[in-house]
């Protein structure tokens, strides 16, 4: 079975698209659908009314672009998307007066109309308040139930990604959690959860019913950083590692958008290597509310991903030395705090957490005694019977990798000196799992692009840091380190790219 994608250019093309629109959102039933496309009398009347409304919007807005996918043998439309090419920058207005959203396709004065205005206005306003730069945003996507899991959705998403690449802008998506995997597969990363305020004075029983059925389906705000051509990647200068917590000069490898990009891409690659497992510790999240700490959280991508997978009944706390990366307006069960992981933690956090998690930050200290102290402080915050999970590098080099990449991995190894601290510090049920992460050529070209960019964004700053180490602590000659930047770029410019790294996940339980 083959498919063909094209951009919609004629009004008549919507005749074949719109029945698919209703079919897609009814199977399985989407609790939001009645507010976007209500059925007041008959299905046929609803399809016609909704189609005419969207055609008018398409004609009136030059930024609105519809695409469709056709099954070539039957010539039937099997999927479609609406992309908004918002290429003009605007200033976000989080505190100003908002223009109310009007859902005039609903019956005037009805609870359904008011709820639709709250819902849709909240979603549209969320992105408008946060994305000031030019961007491409996915407004709608639908795939016929009979043609799902056949690559149709990926084709539709990649059209928008390519368009954003052509325009040199970012891509934004809003999605319910169960739809997130298709977006993550094409490179999107979670940025923030959308919690819409549906509270009104004296709500009716109908309103309460809408709220109870709709609110649990939290939206996730997804943000994709477009893969650049490898030859155009530019690294930023190292920032000051002595900066105070919360300042704009933290000890991050990169900073600002480049660092968030690197961390988001890295998260996707490592999550794929772990078969989408975020927690390997034996914690039953369904037995009751848990309190979870993610140290060195950056923008909270791991924390938000975990929240989407285990539910909102838990308490999530993220800490980082760089507070400027924290999401704005997190949900009520999530908080972010400026905290240097190498410094003492708040005293009232001692023995507080069911799970303490930290990833790729053990090397921040540079000496074994200081790193052991860092780990001890993390363990102190675990409650008796709770768990700690650390993810970091494993000493390993693949013989099949390129010589420049092998030397780069040796440099990474020289920055890590992790040993069996968990056993030494009295933890039990200690486990370790080694995962292999591929940063080079693979069958999944989307993950390949993510892995390559992740590696190239990281390598320049890691090598710059390695050059500052004493010669006796560096296995690779310093003159070789100076040439590795260009050598790795050369290796990555030629297929196949062989570049692998081993990470280890270590988790253990504090005795009761």
From TrEMBL:
One of its GO terms (molecular function) is acyltransferase activity, transferring groups other than amino-acyl groups. InterPro entries: Acyl_CoA_acyltransferase, GNAT_dom, SAM-dependent_MTases_sf, Trichothecene_AcTrans. Pfam families: Acetyltransf_1 (PF00583). SUPFAM superfamilies: Acyl-CoA N-acyltransferases (Nat), S-adenosyl-L-methionine-dependent methyltransferases. Residues 70-216 form the N-acetyltransferase domain. It comes from the Eukaryota. This is N-acetyltransferase domain-containing protein.
